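Hi D.,

Good news: the full-assembly prediction came through. Inputs first.
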Amino acid sequence: MVVDRRFERDERAALFTPLTVRSVTFRNRIVMSPMTRGYCPDGIPDEAVLAYYRRRAEGGTGLIITEGVAVDHAAALGDAGLGENNIPLLAGDRAIAGWRMVTDAVHAAGGKIIPQLWHQGAMRKPGTGPFPKSATVSPSGIWGPLGRMTSIAPSFIPSDPHIGEPMTECDIEDAIAAFERCAKNALVAGFDGIALHGGHGYLIDNFLWEGTNRRQDRWGGDRARRSAFGAEIVRRIRTSIGEEFPIFFRFSQWKQQDFRAKLADTPEELAEVLCPLADAGVDVFDASVRYFNSAAFERHPGNLAGWAKRITGKLSMAVGGVGMNHGMYDKGDGAKASDDFEPLIQRFKQEEFDLVAVGRGMIGDPLWADKFRSRREFLPYIPENDATLF
Ligand SMILES: Cc1cc2nc3c(=O)[nH]c(=O)nc-3n(C[C@H](O)[C@H](O)[C@H](O)COP(=O)(O)O)c2cc1C
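Then the structure:
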């Protein structure tokens, strides 16, 4: 039977409309989710890293959010389980020049690219990273409650939850200034905006979560006060980079220290967390969940990205299990590509969220965006084959 394609509905087209955020236009709504790879020798992106990101831009990705890039702070980075000194930096002439090559290549392929600024906070393994002698920093000197459900390798879990001293005012200012410096460097390197890693149990999230923030000064207390550190980073970055460039903010309920942790049990509580960040200048909330297609709160429909958008009036991005049959961290017989896109398309068309981030699918197949558009089969995501940047 011959199918007359003129009468087929092209539902995927909705995801291929451009989006302008501040002065930057993304050609479509498909985003490469930030993914640490550990392939930057001495923290400097090289030709292989350039080619890796260029392939994703050539494959039609609208926006690339880079792997986590360590901010310019001695305690930002420790062993991430991927070998020594191969997590990228964004300070110093060599790192800026390395990233400049990458951003030029992505722009030449029609894409946009922003770095994910990362400080590991309490999750940094003491005695490791580029500055092993510096103390690990966190708001209250606490790693988090022990014995919770987590997938962290035992060698990364401390035997005592008290890992150091609470950060002083001076420590806090140093960390904020490090984010600010790197944001300025990002613009020199040709990036199109800034993404902040505010989830997964790292420094900004250590302030957001009561499990790691016991402070009673202006950086702790209720939810809004626990957002003050993240909000101050956003405010300082906004002042430094001006009005043209978007700021993305990733947040998560779950923490690596505790998969069942929650910042908020209700939409009202989520508003207490996110509104100070929105007021400070966040443009897009990146709601990190394992399944984009699950309700964020009991008795309320809507996923976490949808609630972030509704609560703050800002844009939002969904992520988690797009084109994959298993969520990240799920046990089972391996994640495989899936072509069940109906829930994604329907939710997007209902304007629940504005952008869609793809993680593992995008590692597996650099042409993910183009293939999604034209309904071609994806290459598989095979973590065991992950020995090179493809
Ligand atoms: C290899 C790998 C590295 C990751 N590194 C980061 C990271 O540096 N920063 C971050 O916020 N999320 C990181 N993530 C999480 C992804 O951004 C994404 O949220 C997650 O994989 C869920 O999306 P997916 O189901 O499409 O894979 C990583 C995921 C993978 C698979």
